[in-house]
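Deliverable D4.2, example record:
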Amino acid sequence: MHIKKDNITFFGLLYSKDGVQPDPDKIKAIQALKAPQTCKQLQEFLGIATYMAPFIPNLSSHTAILRELMKKDAQFEWTDAQQKEFETIKELICRATTLAYFDPKKDTILQVDASLSGLGAALLQEDKPICFASRALTDTEKRYANIEREMLAVVYACEKFHTTQTEQHQGRHQGRSRTGCPNEIVVNGWPERQREVPQAIRKYWAYRDELSVEDGLIIKGDRIVIPKTMQKDILRKLHEAHQGITKCQLRAKASVFWHSINRDIEDMVKECHLCQEFGRSLPREPLQPQEIPTGPWQTVGTDIFTLYGEDYLVVVDYYSKYPIIRRLPKGNATSQTVITYLKQIFSEHGIPSKLISDNGSQYSSQLFTSFSHKWGFQHVTSSPLYPQSNGMAERFVQTIKKTLAKTLKDKQDVYLALLCIRTTPVDHQIPSPAELLFNRKIVQLLTDSNPQQQP
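Output generated by the structure prediction step:
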């Protein structure tokens, strides 16, 4: 222990009677740093800069170019622009301001500033800086009007410095808890060591390089990171159509994330009593090979099935696997009725080159043959010896029947269940049936209200 010293150093900072400033030895080490060669080295340098942020006005405006290299799909390319910003940051750190100690008896001034790229704030007493703060704007915030950005700067500054003055131990603990907010750590930088991360978000340490904040939401790639309080509701939405484990995980992969989401989905499906009740499937019969179409709506299959006394017509596109369902009038599953509904579907999606069906009476009638000739599509029926040659449609009949049965028994919205089937990726490499058919993403419960129109 040293008594009556003029100054002391602690955790990279120098404390004296005049205030606090970065340790000069640390400054020399930073000044000698070479340009980063990898994303990891750049992240370490930005972490150092973030630690020095309280001593540097508007630091975020000087790190924009370097932060671009940290984005998920960015290529690490070090040019003159990056080198110039790197040297500027080092120079700012070397000229870091000495901060005065906060005095609750003195008047305090909070200064804020908003530019087109970032927000800045300074806490002052007697014109001496107590602390600086800054952050970059998201793409959405950059489109705000000037007055909106200025108000955003006010809100940011008030939130940033809301724990500066405290007189009770309880307040200090609350302050530490709040500064452990995931959004704040993602925006301002993670600690250098995992053990320094608040316990509540330590599980995301492995994903820290992939996280960003947009419109107040934490994003991992294209997926929203869901807080603990909302995970049960999201699981329910993922399982709206009572799809299996793989399909639910594919839906999640397209839009939402938390660290244990795959395990939670697996547990949820295994515990679903309806999925267990309807889970047993008949052994698959061998399918006759079919020519694979090269584009959407060239070849479609159709079939009719009955569920709970109601007849349904199903049409499925062989390319995208997009299913269309129509409930037929009760007791009227005739050839003419099927033709009427097929005309409606073809008027919306176009006439396919080939229509595959079984040999049911609705499809083998002279009336249906006349319809195929008049509308100009090739009608192919499955062989009586091999009815499974219409396998795509018949397979979807089983999928749709199970989906409708579980949804109706669960008293859920049938149309939302169909939407889930249409918007779930086919597999890990192939997008959803809707995206394959329409060449765009369509809105569903787990996407925002304005998805990108191009896949």
